[in-house]
Amino acid sequence: MPASEEKPNLALYIHWPFCRQKCPYCDFNSHVSTTHDNNEFGKALCLEISYMAEILPDRRALKSIFFGGGTPSLMPPAVVGKIIAHAEKIFGFAPTIEVTAEANPTSVEAKVMNEFYHAGVNRVSMGVQSLDYDILKFLGREHDVAEALSALDTVRQRFDNLSIDLIYATAGQTINNWQNTLSQALAFDLSHLSLYQLIIEPGTVFYSRQRNGEALRLDDDYAADLFDLTQHMTAVAGLPAYEISNHSKTSARCQHNLNYWQAGDWIGVGPGAHGRFTIATDNYKNLQRVGTATRRSPAGWLQSVQKTGHGIDTHTHDGPGAFAAEMIMMGLRLTNGVSLQRIETMCGPRDGWLDDGAVTQAIEDGWLEGSKSNDSGMVTDLRATESGRLRLN
Length: 393
Fold this sequence. Notes:
Elements: E1 10-16, E2 18-19, E3 31-32, H1 38-55, E4 62-69, H2 77-91, E5 93-103, H3 107-119, E6 123-129, H4 133-138, H5 145-156, E7 162-168, H6 175-186, E8 192-197, H7 205-211, H8 220-236, E9 241-243, E10 246-248, H9 255-261, E11 265-269, E12 274-279, E13 288-294, H10 298-308, E14 312-318, H11 320-331, E15 338-339, H12 340-347, H13 356-364, E16 368-372, E17 379-384, H14 386-389
Parallel strand pairs: 1-4, 1-11, 2-3, 4-5, 5-6, 6-7, 7-8
Antiparallel strand pairs: 8-10, 9-10, 12-13, 13-14, 15-17, 16-17
Helix pairs in contact: 1-2, 2-3, 3-5, 6-8, 11-12
């Protein structure tokens, strides 16, 4: 590794696959279950953390942990605490480690978040999804608006670092409706908002309904109008976008997700979890980007971990070109864009992974913008313009 290059951040993703019900838009690896053994799954997650630590090229202090799902707020707080303590024992923690748990805004889950705080969680991402009764019903959510507001009030009494998710651009949603919802969300004076347009994913209930002719989301042109409104309102409120769908104060950007978008290293444990980390020798001349994916079936994953210490189902090994593509694809989601110089340092000369003609055309079309080196005149970094962000997929 070049002396000027610091080791990338290391993050840990923990997948808890269980839910009380399956939302019609959700394509995550989530399963409705009331018969699983929470303690058994907690022990298995710790076993897999230990195994993943052994296959890393080097151990570093964790910069972030993220409990995703599924519904992590259904986890017993004692299990959460044991997993966090085990992760600290195996890796150590950075001084400013961010530990996030996703939560649903039901009254029961909101109350238990106080115990999550004492277990070591210091950030909550709450899946409010809407502040409109009809849209909540359409999205198949358990909670209503009043319960969401009550849960938000309960959780923010303990957590300063709190984000909420909202889904918009659903069929029939008007500009006024979304403006009112977003205004209400901004009035909470939170430091972070995740604002996602509805996507119809294959394998979901919504996908089947759409194939049967039901209109479930706005057309692209109207959805683009709502996106533009979102950018304006959040910027005025002091929560500008730092990524396509994420808005925050500068101090409250989600460090875990930034690690994904900046192509850092992370390990993923739990059913259906993905991890990616870099093995590089000889100043990156022999670079490999390793990917892991675990078995999706909770029962199958658990059986595998208890037998072998891990539930890894597939291993991938990407070379410099594929890693460069990952960095560009993920990095262009960020408003700061990507450093082509950094990618060259890690993946070699750009003529092996960059189509300069396509970059020039995208800049001429107004979709990308970049800075140029005074010495060579070459583009040193790339960012999507406002027009370009509408076209990123």
